[in-house]
Automatic annotation (TrEMBL):
It is an enzyme of class 3 (hydrolase). It comes from Streptomyces cinerochromogenes. Its EC number is 3.2.2.-. Belongs to the DNA glycosylase MPG family. NCBIfam families: 3mg (TIGR00567), PRK00802.1-3 (NF002003). Residues 165-186 are annotated as: Disordered. Coiled coil: none annotated. Pfam families: Pur_DNA_glyco (PF02245). This is Putative 3-methyladenine DNA glycosylase. Keywords: DNA damage, DNA repair, Glycosidase, Hydrolase.
């Protein structure tokens, strides 16, 4: 008999570690999004690590700004950013306060509240695609900049909460280059910092960075 996932909230100490320890350890954990219509729960299957001042692919590489300020705050909080003028993506802040690093949540399996996620992801062909990619994940969970800075470790009322879930055994974890990251930050030999559950159908396909062309 398979034991059900552990619904205990992850403690802040889980996130107060180096980002390359936290990222693979997030696989199999459960993210719960509480909405007025009910909860949506997601089992994480793919993540990417970003290591602040040591990482040219990180939003915090060049220091603190109004946009990335949450990354410099306490661990266990949610950093949400807006990209390409149309999509939101969410991260979980790691490491000690003042040392910006975080984990981008790239994909997951909706294990509760799929009917709510489907209303937000009407273009998904099946439930495996509901959160297959970071923008899709945020859309399925109705995450936007209003949730930037949310504490995901509190046991009280909160719109986002991380639960212990069922950690993925190390022999089922794969790693490789980050998706769509330009320059040195996208070099898989230097930064093989995307982690995913082997053979999981909800994991997004790898795509190398493609420079955006100017119009006109």
């Amino acid at each position: 008999m398979i034991a059900p996932p552990d619904r205990t909230p992850l403690p802040r100490s889980f996130f107060d570690r180096p980002v390359l320890e936290v990222a693979p350890d997030l696989l199999g954990r459960i993210l719960v999004r509480t909405t007025p219509d009910g909860p949506i729960a997601l089992r994480l299957t793919e993540v990417e690590a970003y290591d602040g001042p040591n990482d040219p692919g990180s939003h915090a590489y060049r220091g603190r700004t109004a946009r990335n300020a949450v990354m410099f705050g306490p661990p266990g909080h949610v950093y949400v950013y807006f990209t390409y003028g149309m999509w939101h993506c969410m991260n979980l802040v790691c490491g000690p306060e003042g040392r910006a690093s975080g984990v981008l949540l790239r994909a997951g399996e909706v294990v509760e509240g799929a009917e709510l996620a489907r209303k937000r992801r009407v273009s998904a062909r099946n439930d495996k695609e509901l959160a297959k990619g970071p923008a899709r994940l945020a859309t399925a969970l109705e995450v936007d900049r209003a949730l930037d800075g949310t504490d995901a470790c509190t046991s009280g009322e909160t719109p986002l909460r991380m639960l212990t879930g069922t950690p993925v055994p190390s022999d089922q974890v794969r790693s490789g280059p980050r998706t769509g990251v330009a320059g040195e930050g996208g070099n898989g030999d230097l930064h093989p910092w995307r982690f995913w559950v082997a053979d999981d159908p909800t994991v997004s396909p790898y795509r190398a960075h493609v420079p955006r062309r100017r119009r006109g």
